[in-house]
Amino acid sequence: MKGGYKPTYIFIFEIFIFYKLSRSSKIRLNNTLIKKQAIQLSLDNLLFTNIYPHLNNTIKQRAAAINGLEVGVVRVGSFTSVATQWLPYIIKEFQDDYASIEVKLLEGDYSTLEKWISTGIIDCSFLVSPSSKSFEFQPLKKDKMVCILSDEHPLHRQDKISFEQIEREPLIMPKESWDNETRQIFRENNIKPKVKFEVSDDQAIMAMVQNNLGISVRPEMTLTHIPDNVHVAKLEKDCFRLIGIAAKPNSSPATKTFIKYVYSWIEEHHFLDI
Predict the structure, then answer these.
(1) Closest Cα to residue 39, out of 6, 16, 65?
(2) DSSP assignment string, 178-247
(3) What does R_g of the chain's alpha carbons equal in angstroms?
(4) Could you give phi then psi for residue 29, rounded to 5 degrees?
(5) Class of residue 136 by CB neighbours under 10 A (exposed 0-12, middle 13-18, buried 19+)
């Protein structure tokens, strides 16, 4: 090991980690017992890399934070509409400002993203409220729900569609793990839909609607490329999905930095609506 210091033991319990050196320096992640000399040694010499890679990343980030550095890896989860409309721009600007923090992106459905946060596969994720109560959730945007239908459909000239009309029409739905908001609207308004197809891809839903195979209720952010023969109508009352970013408490310094950056970017580009 560099500098001639060798560890005599490593004891791991919950979020407290004590790393004893021959000089009796200690590292305590939670707050106070961190000596700068021990921190500098630990960045080069910690033995957790192969055994506990996520833990090793967190230790290095906390140690670097004490020295005023911004380093680390942030593993970010997202669903499709955010991954295509926001994240390419957020990640580019973030990495311009924080070149020492690497961002890794994983895409999934709502339930998978929550599971990945819980198990530590990702550090934070864009999610739709309500999410698990064990997460810290930062609201970002109310995404309005609308009805889409083909211009061959008898209702396509209406600006507003009633829930009673929706209940009578064949419906194209996202698969359950890709959608909480539509089902919640139906439950809250006592709608029993006639589901004709269930698919996981937004473009597949759009293509089916375009060919007049049914209607669908979708968030506006999923409608980036609307074909000319697809009509968008309001629902009889305003309904939204609440998009936010979620993480477990006691996130790493790099994760907290990324979450703050996301909020600032959303606010700066006038998407913030909570």
Answers:
(1) 65
(2) G-SHHHHHHHHTT---EEEEEES-HHHHHHHHHTTS-BEEEEGGG-SS--TTEEEEEESS--EEEEEEEE
(3) 24
(4) -65, -35
(5) middle
Note whether 150 and 211 are within 8 A (CB). yes
pLDDT tens digits, residue range 48-103?
444 445 555 555 555 555 544 467 899 999 999 999 999 999 999 999 999 999 99
How many other CB atoms sit within 10 Å of the CB of residue 258?
26
- The size of the chain, in residues, is 274
Residues 88 and 90: their CA atoms lie apart, in Å, by: 6
| 85 neighbors 221 (Cβ within 8 angstroms) | yes
Using CA atoms, how far residue 238 sits from 4, 180, 209, 260, in Å, is 67, 16, 22, 29
Residue 208 carries which side chain, given as an amino acid letter?
M
Enumerate residue ranges in the chain where pLDDT < 70. Answer: 1-70
Per-residue confidence (pLDDT) for residue 180, from 0 to 100:
85
207 phi, psi to nearest 5 deg: -65, -40
Which tokens is 128 given? Answer: 């739709």
Task: List phi, psi (to 5°) of 46.
Answer: -60, 140
Q: What is the pLDDT of residue 64?
A: 52
The predicted pLDDT at position 178 comes to: 85
- In a 13 Å sphere around the CA of 74, the CA atoms on its Cβ side amount to 28
Contact indicator for 72, 61 with CB cutoff of 8 Å: yes
Bridge partner list, 240: 144
Q: What values do phi and psi take at 92, rounded to 5?
A: -60, -50
Q: In angstroms, rounded to a whole number, what is the distance separating the alpha carbons of residues 257 and 260? A: 5
What 3-state class would DSSP assign to 100? coil
Most distant pair of Cα atoms in the chain: their distance: 81
Which of 71, 85, 66 has the alpha carbon at shortest distance from 225? Answer: 85
Residue 71, pLDDT score: 78
State residue 177's pLDDT score: 78
Task: DSSP letter for 215, please.
Answer: B
